[in-house]
Amino acid sequence: MKRVCAVTHMFDHVPLAYTHSYGCQQNVSDGEKINGMLYRMGYDITDDPEKADFILYNTCAVRENAENRVFGNLGALKHLKNRNPDLIIAVCGCMVQQEHIAERIKKTFPFVDLVFGTHVLHRFPEFLYSIFEKGKRVFELPQCDGVICEGIPVKRDSKFRASVPIMYGCNNFCTYCIVPYVRGRERSRAPGEIISEVKGLIEKGYKEILLLGQNVNSYDGGGMNFSGLLRELDSIDGDFVINFMTSHPKDCSHELIDTIADSRHISWHLHLPVQSGSDRILKLMNRHYDVAHYTELVEYARRRIPDIQLTTDIIVGFPGETYEDFTETLELMRKIKYDSAFTFIYSKREGTKAAEMDDPVSDEDKGKWFRELLEVQGECGDEAYKKYVGQTMRILCEGRGRTDESLYTGKSRQNIIVDFNGNEQHIGQFVDVKITRALNWALVGEIIQ
């Protein structure tokens, strides 16, 4: 970083960097580290690529449309490179960790100067310096698992919300998922490093701590499991809330649910991706649980935490899924009545086992199933939120409203979106809000003065 800074200080202006992170919160967190390193290397951050001296796309590989957006946006940068040959263009993240994608970029986009994978984020300044020094393209995409590198500077997007990765990688190899191939095997940060980082953030006034991992409840920090880590973080003094994502049902336990129930700071929100309500499809997905086990976890969570918000992920049209399998998913949704669900039509990922399976159901039928699923979830969400009308909830104000820009918005301890009357001074603070109206995806209320 010091060597690059020495180069940028010779510019006749303060160089500007434009970065954009696609996909999950882990990618967003990586983007904050990239911005932190750029800032240390003498760059200011801009939201206008037309003004940038350095442009970076931090990519996602989970769905095909995310990859297509990156290719489209890359193509649009060619005119900027023609106008400014000194412009440096970089691509990193999960998408480029796939060999066929990296080769396509190398051949199709010769104006891209730097491509690096998920395992070498900490070496980004080294790659950038090499471009300044040698003037040659850099492609660095090792296939080995990455290291855990502490002490990387972070330029956070928010002054009151902070993401804290606690582990990286995944060992599950769900047959539809590319993540283990692009993020590597599970590696957990040392508990002391995490606790120290969270304490520092709380001392600086951060109000929400989001713990991140591809499967966050698989955390294993030298004998400390995820529940143990949560208990340590919950014991920290201060006025804050802890959220985490994403949980895998096979690693969810009564111990984890009890830890949430008995906590002072942990959100009463459990995101538990079921993916399908059919045991046959769950086996084909290699999910390592069945519907009975999943349902028992949900029932226990609702007994221990009556106000818990339950959300999930569901894939429609997995290879080999029949309409009978799909109706089992609808039955499970009606039984559990999720507060909300992230629903997707299956997206084929080259390199996964599911990509090799027969997939006879037409896109048209999958679309019909998907619309049916949305209708059922809409009914469940509408019913789930009505129970909060008349209650007073403690909300962390995040900014302008989602339902009405004249209002302000935030989230409750259940991680439910709430819009309410407020002002700029409330942003980043906890406020008490009486709920007056329920939507099928959010609540509306008024501040109690």
- Count of discrete structural domains: 3
Distance between the termini: 49 Å
Form type: globular
Sequence of strands across the biggest β-sheet = 2-1-3-4-5-6
Give the amount of beta strand, in percent: 15-25%
Q: Helix segment count? A: 14
- CATH superfamily grouping of the largest domain: tm_1862 like domain
Poorly predicted spans:
none
CATH class of the largest domain: Alpha Beta
Radius of gyration: 23 Å
CATH architecture of the largest domain: Alpha-Beta Horseshoe
Global mean pLDDT: 94
Q: Which structural category do the helix and sheet elements fall into?
A: alpha/beta
At CATH level 3, the topology of the largest domain is pyruvate-formate lyase- activating enzyme
Helix content: 25-40%
**Chain oligomer state:** single chain
How many runs of DSSP E, i.e. beta strands?
A: 21
Biggest sheet: strands, sense, closure? 6 strands, parallel
Outline of this structure?
The chain is an alpha/beta fold. The chain contains 14 helices and 21 strands.
Describe what this molecule looks like in 3D:
The protein has 449 residues and is an alpha/beta fold. It has 3 domains: 2-140, Methylthiotransferase, N-terminal domain (Rossmann fold, 3-Layer(aba) Sandwich), CATH 3.40.50.12160; 161-386, pyruvate-formate lyase- activating enzyme, CATH 3.80.30.20; 392-447, Nucleic acid-binding proteins (OB fold (Dihydrolipoamide Acetyltransferase, E2P), Beta Barrel), CATH 2.40.50. It has 14 helices and 21 strands. It has helices at 2-8, 25-40, 64-76, 78-83, 99-108, 124-134, 179-183, 191-203, 226-234, 254-261, 279-285, 291-304, 323-336, 363-386, and strands at 16-21, 44-45, 54-59, 88-93, 114-116, 138-140, 161-165, 167-168, 187-188, 208-212, 220-221, 224-225, 241-245, 269-271, 309-316, 340-345, 392-400, 408-411, 417-420, 430-438, 443-447. The termini are far apart. The mean pLDDT is 94.
